[in-house]
Amino acid sequence: MKTEYASAVAAVKAMESTLMTQNDIEQLINTSTKSERQAFIDSRNGDVKNISDVWDMLMTFASDSKELKILLYRNDFHNLKAVLKAMISNRDPEIYYVSPSNVTLEELKKAFRDKEADILPEHMRDTARSAYELLTRTLDGQLSDSLIDCAALEAMQKSAADCGSEFMKRYAALISACADIKTAYRCSKMGKSRQFLESAVCGSSELDKEALIRSALSGVEALYDYLKKSGYGEAAELLKENPAGFEKWCDDVIMELAADARMQAFGVEPLAAYYIAKEAELKNIRIINVCKESGTAREIITERMRKLYV
Question: What is the rounded distance in angstroms from the CA atom of residue 185 to the CA atom of residue 244?
């Protein structure tokens, strides 16, 4: 029922007042020292210090939400890559593990150590088996990573379609399109083979997989042309002039989607939108901290700021 998360939505609406505004971001950019920045951040964040805190809060309201769990699929599959490569190279996977995630570090370690992929969520099992076989057979970490990254996007899109949420379907499609564009661009620049592209490009309702691959194989100019014809002209221009700006554009497109979902009164969508908003805010904080420490000019920092939710 749409109303089952009514109390959660009300709580999230109240917490939106703690999200940083444009004025807050400007004040943060104007700070002089690291301690001054941290004091300002602490004054705004309250008990929510990181994205895991946000996730824990949402789970107190909606622990059974399949839709929300899709937001963490990329973390889950990143951790799958990290644990697999760490165990193959006899390293501690914990240093590569990112939170929050739906799958624990111990579950991932056990799945590979004991060859028990069945303990993983269904949408990860075949990928875990295939990636393990590929990496142990070829020792090609890049090919294994591409397989896992593509599988993450496919799983997001399938789970979003299964849950029936139009917001999550749109979210998964946009995430996949941005990832595929980035992959196609890099592969085109590096002269990667069709075989590699077919394993690395996922495809989505936004961009046809075969057409994207074909354009990438024909060179970056052909790729730009295809993107323009497919409604991604702005992305093409950014890739041509400022690839770093394309990364920002991808984040901003997702934020625009979240801002629309924010207006809903019921359902899981406002919860997902708040999580996305907090992710963007924390990314802005990280960018500011890194830029300030490296002495980056104020106008450049401002250009790199992601869109805000409030």
Answer: 13
What is the chain's Cα-based Rg? 20
Do 58 and 72 reside in the same domain of the chain?
no
Structural element, H or E, at residue 310: none
Look up the CATH number of the domain holding residue 74: 1.20.1690.10
Per-residue pLDDT of the chain (310 residues; tens, 9 = 90+): 456 778 888 888 888 888 999 999 999 999 989 999 989 988 877 666 789 999 998 999 888 899 999 999 999 999 999 999 898 888 888 889 999 999 999 999 999 989 999 999 999 999 999 999 999 999 888 889 999 999 999 999 999 999 989 999 999 999 999 999 999 999 999 999 999 999 999 999 999 999 999 999 999 999 999 999 999 999 999 999 988 899 999 999 999 999 988 877 778 899 999 999 999 999 999 999 999 999 999 999 999 999 987 6
Structure tokens at 116: 């028990």
Retrieve residue 209's tokens: 């997989």
User: Within a 10 A sphere around the Cβ of 213, how many other Cβ atoms?
Assistant: 24
Q: Which domain, by its residues, includes 57? A: 1-63+268-310
